[in-house]
Amino acid sequence: MRANKYEVIVFGTSAGGLRVIRSLVMSLPANFSMALIIIQHLSDASPGSWIDLLERDCKVLIKEADEKEVIQSGIVYVAPPNYHLLIERDRTFTLTVDERVNYARPAIDVTFISAAEAYGEHLIGVVATGANFDGAEGLKQIKEMGGMTIVQDPKGAEVEAMPRAAIALAKPDRILTMEGIIKYLLEVHSVNLADGNP
Predict the structure, then answer these.
(1) pTM of the model
(2) Less crowded by CB within 10 Å, the N or C end of the chain?
(3) Is 90 among the catalytic positions?
């Protein structure tokens, strides 16, 4: 029995992101075979209630990532407002209040780069709608470390800037509509189950 080819998905988004996050998490089955880590640009004072609203209508557990928490498959983790979310090599989270990166905290690049170092070829990185260039450098790093890189098709994104920046810098493996991204991730999940991985 082999280990999962892909164990974790990191998903970065900014302006327009709540809509695509909702469509993604609503599609996940209760036995989803990977961890999903979401970095959504939020204001410092953003309430966590949007996570509760999502969880009411979906089949998986959704929660803010906690300091030193062990990453587990089948859980959707969200970076808390005003903290950078790093992934350590022992597959735990670290939260920091270091300076903003790309004008953001949490910054997508911070999480993506640390995830690439921790998971290498077992990682899927996705950049979706957003108004700046955060995530492009991190996605490039994921590709260089052997992971799968995906960008939402800018033509279908609510805000095109972030997907376009990621495409230009990272030369992603796939450029897909949001529906195509969901379909691909569910196909990976099905392959994991067929290989005997939970």
Answers:
(1) 0.93
(2) N
(3) no
Catalytic residue from among 41, 84, 122, 189: 41
Cα 127 versus chain centre, distance: 8
Complete edge-to-edge strand list for the sheet that includes strand 8-13: 61-64, 75-78, 35-40, 8-13, 123-127, 148-152, 174-176
Is 173 tagged catalytic? Answer: no
Q: What confidence tens digit (pLDDT) does each residue in 136-176 have? A: 999 999 999 999 999 999 999 999 999 999 999 999 999 99
Rounded Cα gap, residues 124 and 112, in angstroms: 10
Please pick, among 109, 114, 122, 134, the residue that the annotation labels catalytic: 134
Which of 14, 122, 153, 189 is flagged as catalytic? 14
Which amino acid appears at position 172 of this protein?
P
Kindly state the percentage of the chain with pLDDT values over 70.
Answer: 92
Please give the helix or strand (H or E) that residue 45 lies within, else none: none
Q: List b or e across 97-118, with b for residues whose CB sees 16 or more CB atoms inside 10 angstroms.
A: eeeebbebbbbbbbbbbbbbbb
With tokens 């005003």, the residue in question is: 82
Contact yes or no for 12/152 (Cβ under 8 A): no
Please state, in angstroms and as integers, the Cα–Cα distance from residue 136 to each residue in 7, 14, 38, 43, following that order.
21, 13, 15, 21
